[in-house]
Amino acid sequence: MFIEKLGWSQPSRQKAVLLEIENKTYQYQGIAELSGVAVFEITAVDGKIPEAKVRAAIHK
C-alpha cells in the first residue's frame, strides 16, 4: 500500500532483522520510506501479538 498507492520508496535496508525479547523472537523488516521516515513490519515467530510491555520494548 505505501509503495503502490501512496508513492513511498522501497526501504534502504531490505534484510529482515531478528530481535529476542523476553525469550521470544521477533522479526522486523522495513517496508517503505519517505523523506527519512521509515515504516517497519514486526512479526512474532509464533504469530501472536505481544503484550503491551513487550511492544514497548520492541519500539525502543
Structural class by helix and strand composition: mainly beta
Strand content: 35-45%
C-alpha Rg, in Å? Answer: 13 Å
* Unreliable segments of 5+ consecutive residues: none
What is the average of the pLDDT values? 89
Strand order of the largest sheet: 1-2-3
Say how many strands there are: 3
The assembly state of the depicted protein chains is single chain
Q: Which outline best applies?
A: elongated
Number of helices: 1
Please give the share of residues in helix.
Answer: 10-25%
Q: How many domains would you count in the coordinates?
A: 1
H/E element order: EEEH
State the end-to-end distance. 25 Å
Describe the secondary structure blueprint for this structure.
Elements: E1 17-21, E2 24-34, E3 37-44, H1 52-59
Antiparallel strand pairs: 1-2, 2-3
Task: Describe the 3D structure.
The model has no long low-confidence stretch (mean pLDDT 89). By secondary structure, the chain is mainly beta. The chain is 13% helix and 40% strand. The two termini are 25 Å apart. Strands 1-2-3 form a three-stranded antiparallel beta sheet. Strand 1 (17-21) and strand 2 (24-34) form a beta hairpin. The protein has one helix and three strands. It has one domain (17-59).
Quickly list its features.
3-stranded antiparallel sheet; 60 residues; elongated; 1 helix; mainly beta
Task: Give a short synopsis of this structure.
This protein is mainly beta and 60 residues long.
